[in-house]
Amino acid sequence: MARSLRTTLERELKLGAGPGFILPALPGVTLEPRTFVSTYYDTPSRRLAAGGITLRLRTEDRKRLWQLKFPRAAARLELELAGGGSAVPEEFLDLLYGHLRGEELAPAATLRTRRHGIRVLDLEREIADVVLDRVTILDGRRTLSKLTELEVELLEGRPRDLRRIADVLRSAGASNGDDRPKLFQALDLPAPVPAPPVAAAAPPAEHVRSLLEEQYRAILQHDPGTRLGHDPEELHQLRVATRRLRALLRAARPLLASEWTAAVRGELDWLGGALAPVRDLDVLIEHLEQEVADFERPDRRAATRLIESLAEERAEARQTLLAALRSARYLSLLDALERGCSATRLSTPDISPREIARREFRRLRRSVQSLGPEPADAELHATRIMGKRARYAAELAETTVGKPASEFVRRAKDFQDVVGEHQDAVVAEQRLRELLRHTRGTHTGFAAGRLVERERARRRAARAAFPKTWARLERSGLRAWQ
Length: 482
What we know:
The protein is α+β, with helices and mostly antiparallel strands. 56% of the residues lie in helices and 20% in strands.
């Protein structure tokens, strides 16, 4: 029987506390004092720590609890599995597959924590847990060092409650704490921080390398969430990073002498092909669910049957996606990206990122100028692809060009939204017609017809918005690149 995986979004604040610190009186109830031992795991090269990830086995009153935490903006996603032995659960190993890269996990540190605290209440609402942890870092039975830490973890509270409680604790003698997880403090590891922005005057290869690394890190960051499958945005961001990398390698070809560039682009195409079906179905299903929300009950019920067919297709596509993410081929791609990010070399130093962006914009402009008064759907879709390339090339040049490039990127996003809306409407109509061929029933046909008409209206609206949106992008392009 599969164990239940508990998932929470951990929002907390850490503060420092001296040896004599006493928790001030706070409105709430006293928490039961606890003592537990946490064994943290990582690879010898500290791959989890490099990604800001912590994995630990917590033992308390002879009960075991595995905990895995991933960074999520200003919070952390915490996964818990109760029970099990001393071996890392397979469920966690799967989520960490892209990070571990074949390395074995081993105990990295053992911490004993004595905890007491208060659950802060406000009119019976559970605002936050305020706990004082006195931590002993162990080597077997030998004490290596100690640390004391205050944690304020939001429950039903809001960020302003976190700040309000922190003010009370500071008034009682608390200080600014160490924001690093306890393992990082125990091993004296630096917290992962974003790389500093590249200076405008830096060589072009440095700008390329910076963007490559940024997208490579984004793939690693959103890999576990994509495997978990709870939040569609994780898959979306993984796909965006894959597309950006592929477009960047294409746009920066004049700057790259690395032999791996063409091969990596091909592998990114493969990965993008594995990600696309699930993401496209996520978008389509969400859109159709919104469209049928105002249907009368019989039509909504009939339309829901169509959406359920798409959901079944998505489930099959997700299995294919997971197989790709669990493959040796995927690990090889990550290894190639990791090596390439640290070994980018110039082949033609006199070609600047600005010139690359100018070339992509000119290609896009020629393509749009060649469109007739009523361009085919495929032609507008082609401009969408070229618009993305022009945008990603502009992002490469943004640091050196400044505001004009940033304005172009903003206008390019607007352009992508319009042609993307058009393409989504075209695809939605095609999919609805395909579903009808395998579905019977008057109500289903009528509901599908209503949806098709809405998609056609959506397509017409996008076409009407196209000229003005393109004119704005063209003007910003001429200012930035001519």
